[in-house]
UniProtKB/TrEMBL annotation, chain A:
Any Pfam family hit: ABC_tran
Highest taxon listed in the record's lineage: Bacteria
Cellular component terms (Gene Ontology): membrane
Gene Ontology terms for molecular function: ATP binding; ATP hydrolysis activity; phosphate transmembrane transporter activity
One GO process term, biological-process aspect: phosphate ion transmembrane transport
ABC transporter domain boundaries: 5-247
NCBIfam families xrefs: 3a0107s01c2
Originating organism: Streptomyces scopuliridis RB72
Protein name in UniProt: Phosphate ABC transporter ATP-binding protein
From TrEMBL, chain B:
Main location, first listed in the record: membrane
Biased composition (Pro residues): 9-19
Any one GO molecular function term: phosphate transmembrane transporter activity
Entry-linked NCBIfam families: phosphate_pstC
Membrane-spanning segments: 43-65, 85-118, 130-157, 185-208, 300-323
Extent of the signal sequence: none
Membrane topology type: Multi-pass membrane protein
A GO biological process held by the record: phosphate ion transport
GO CC entries: plasma membrane
Organism: Streptomyces scopuliridis RB72
Name used for this protein in its record: Phosphate transport system permease protein
Length: 258, 334
């Protein structure tokens, strides 16, 4: 069930260093929102606050509110582990569990949720691998280790693993930056299909990619190195790329800096 | 003045002079050749040492075994000075294997637990001191362990023994059939477990710390608890490392001499009643008998040493097989 994300006044720290400052935005369900901006502007950090992964970094700490529909992820009684079961994440480098078979990789999240019946697992694994456009390539070797796949296949395996638990939101942290152009294209097509079912947030360094896959784009920037990153603007992707309302966005997009 | 300048700037003038003789044969510079020679020499030296030890053991063992009137593998007694000489390794092999197995069963789970605590549970302030104390255990000489075992552990374990005998006699192994203080296989196993704990712990800890961050985040992002992260990412990644750590510990347990010799009251009986006093191990038997043995007696002890040598080789070979078989799954993409 895709959910709306509502962020207000979010500030994240590494120890005493403020990485992002006072960010507020809304992400619509069943849409793709892209985060762009120069390195160090905090877009990945912000992404990781959306499933409470930021705080597993030593010194990581968050202030502010993230509402998923109406539930605050940072509420007093919210278990971060439960949050991560409803907000899936795909990382920059493909990270399947290296010792597990393809099947077990996709089933890992289901098993954590207590699903262990083999028939039920097999059904969801097939559905997830099909959903990640990987089924036809691996259906004959589900018992082989996931680490034997190509980089692009591994990344789609990680996407299958993330969507197998039917998350409310899917976060992607530069999912194509370690992949070749053909694999990148496969993932971008997949993102287009997945947004029918999930709320997707993607961090990317590739502005063409943001333009191709996203409905809305958020531009992050920082005043200087060591300063906290800020959200400059968020708008329809077409507007951001054609006619942004802030000069810094236009400068970044047209390649004048960053 | 001329001499000082040449010392101040040695590389340019000396390089052309130094190079021709070294480059005359084949590759590269003098440094390369010296280093490759040194490393090749070290490798060969290792093989020579191993071969000469094996040769020495085999030669002296052959002398002893050819004159043995008993069956060397199945005889319980150790009387090489009797006429005719009768001696065998049955008791020693049994005692060595059993005490080492007890040590492994006790030490490996505890060591893995400590290693996980240090690497994944303890706050940093606590992790470093705990790791240091564990490493410190490895610095205690084995004779100290022996004395501590004999003076502290044995009296303390007397109580444990009678408790085990009272409530767990039905397990057979904890059924004490011979009276006596706790100078038995169980005590030796416990002492060996303490002695191999540091090596197993520190090697496991190093492996657990090397688990790539992205492997752990993969589990975390799926909503894994701390224990589930360990089960999904840390233990699979560390498995072959824990196996090699255990084998290092097993190697030490198999060969441990002074501590066992100090704690055990040896006899030449085989009993799976672990609480019965007595038994013996290869190393303990050699240490106990070597001084009083005549020439032939020493050959006999060397023959038993050869068996220990082969046993250790087999253990290491088995460990390598296990690790190699897991290679496909060993996290090559990490």
């Amino acid at each position: 069930m895709a959910k709306r994300i509502d962020v207000s006044g979010l500030t994240a720290y590494y120890g005493s260093h403020r990485a992002i400052d006072d960010i507020s935005m809304t992400v619509e369900p069943r849409s793709v929102t892209a985060f762009i901006g120069p390195s160090g502007c905090g877009k990945s950090t912000f992404l990781r606050t959306l499933n409470r992964m930021h705080e597993v970094t030593p010194g990581g700490r968050v202030e502010g509110k993230v509402l998923l529909d109406d539930e605050n992820l940072y509420g007093a009684n919210v278990d971060p582990v439960a949050v991560r079961r409803t907000v899936g994440m795909v990382f920059q480098r493909p990270n399947p569990f290296p010792t597990m078979s393809i099947f077990d990789n996709v089933a890992a999240g289901l098993r954590l949720n207590g699903k262990v019946r083999k028939s039920e697992l097999a059904e969801v694994v097939e559905k997830s691998l099909k959903g990640a456009n990987l089924w036809n390539e691996v259906k004959d070797r589900l018992n082989k280790p996931g680490s034997g796949l190509s980089g692009g296949q591994q990344q789609r395996l990680c996407i299958a693993r993330a969507i197998a638990v039917e998350p409310d939101v899917l976060l992607m942290d530069e999912p194509c930056s370690a992949l070749d152009p053909i694999s990148t294209l496969a993932i971008e097509d997949l993102i287009g299909e997945l947004k029918e079912r999930f709320t997707i947030v993607i961090v990317t360094h590739n502005m063409q990619q943001a333009a191709r896959v996203s409905d809305r784009t958020a531009f992050f920037n920082l005043a200087a190195v060591g300063q906290p990153g800020k959200l400059i603007e968020i708008d329809e992707t077409e507007r951001i790329f054609a006619n942004p309302s802030v000069q810094a966005t236009e400068d970044y997009i047209s390649g004048r800096f960053g | 003045m001329a001499s000082t300048t040449s010392i101040d700037t040695p590389p340019p003038p000396r390089a052309p002079q130094a190079e021709p003789p070294s480059a005359s044969t084949s590759t590269g510079r003098a440094g390369d050749k010296i280093f490759s020679g040194l490393s090749k020499g070290s490798g060969i030296l290792l093989l020579v040492i191993m071969a000469s030890i094996a040769g020495f053991l085999a030669y002296r063992a052959a002398i002893a075994i050819s004159k043995d009137e008993g069956n060397f593998l199945t005889t319980f007694d150790w009387n090489p000075s009797a006429s005719p000489p009768v001696f065998g390794i049955a008791v020693l092999l049994f005692g060595t294997v059993v005490s080492s197995i007890i040590a492994m069963v006790i030490a490996v789970p505890i060591a893995v637990g400590i290693a996980l605590f240090i690497s994944h549970y303890a706050p940093r302030r606590l992790a470093a001191p705990v790791a240091y104390v564990v490493d410190l255990l490895a610095a205690v000489p084995s004779i100290i362990y022996g004395i501590w075992g004999a003076l502290v552990l044995v009296p303390y374990l007397d109580g444990l023994n009678s408790w085990l005998d009272q409530y767990f006699a039905w397990t057979y192994i904890f059924d004490q059939t011979q009276p006596g203080v706790a100078r038995n296989m169980l005590t030796v196993g416990i002492l060996l477990a303490i002695m191999i704990l540091p090596i197993v712990t520190s090697v496991s800890r190093e492996v657990f710390l090397q688990v790539p961050r992205m492997n752990e985040e993969a589990a975390l992002a799926l909503g894994a608890t701390r224990w589930e992260v360990i089960r999904l990412s840390v233990l699979p990644f560390g498995r072959s490392g824990v196996i090699s750590a255990s084998m290092l510990g097993l190697g030490r347990a198999l060969g441990e001499t002074m501590a066992v010799a100090t704690v055990l009251s040896p006899n030449y009986l085989i009993s799976l009643h672990l609480l019965d006093p007595g038994g013996g191990t290869f190393a303990q038997n050699i240490a106990a008998k070597f001084d009083e043995a005549d020439e032939f007696g020493r050959d006999a002890l060397i023959a038993s040493g050869l068996v220990l040598f082969v046993l250790t080789l087999l253990v290491n070979g088995a460990a390598r097989l296990i690790i190699a078989r897991r290679k496909e799954y060993s996290g090559a993409n990490a």
